[in-house]
Write a structure and sequence with these properties.
CATH topology: Alpha-Beta Plaits
Oligomer: single chain
CATH class: Alpha Beta
Distance between the termini: 16 Å
Largest sheet: 5 strands, antiparallel
Number of helices: 4
Length: 110
C-alpha cells in the first residue's frame, strides 16, 4: 500500500463551514471512497486554511479515476469547489499538490 500526502488551501472565511461539512460526509461518499481504493484517508486543517490530506492506496491515480466515475463524487466536488483557493475552477480532488515523503518510521509488525 502506498502512502500519499497532499495539500490544498481552504478559504479562511469558510473554515467553520468546511469543517462542519466534513463532520457529516455523506455515507454514499464514504462508501464510494472505500470502494474506489482509498484507505486510511484523513484531513487535517490549520487555522489559516492549510489543508493537509493523507491517504493510502495501491495507486492514487487509479483511485482518483475510479472516484471521478461516480455520481456521488461529482456532486460532492461540485459543492466543495467553492471552499478552496488556487484550484482554478478544477474540482478539489483533481487539484492536490502531492508532497514527497522524506521519512517514514516503520512499525514493529513482522
Amino acid at each position: 500500500m502506498n502512502r500519499y500526502c497532499f495539500c490544498l488551501q481552504v478559504r479562511p472565511d469558510r473554515l467553520a463551514e468546511y469543517v462542519d461539512r466534513h463532520r457529516n460526509v455523506w455515507p454514499e461518499m464514504q462508501a464510494a471512497l472505500r470502494d474506489s481504493g482509498w484507505h486510511n484517508y484523513s484531513l487535517f486543517l490549520r487555522d489559516d486554511g492549510l489543508l493537509i490530506g493523507y491517504v493510502e492506496a495501491e495507486d492514487l491515480d487509479a483511485a482518483q479515476k475510479a472516484m471521478a466515475a461516480t455520481e456521488v463524487n461529482t456532486r460532492w466536488q461540485s459543492e466543495m469547489t467553492e471552499f478552496f483557493t488556487g484550484i482554478d475552477g478544477r474540482p478539489p480532488d483533481e487539484s492536490f499538490l502531492l508532497l514527497p515523503e522524506i521519512f517514514h518510521l516503520k512499525g514493529t509488525e513482522s
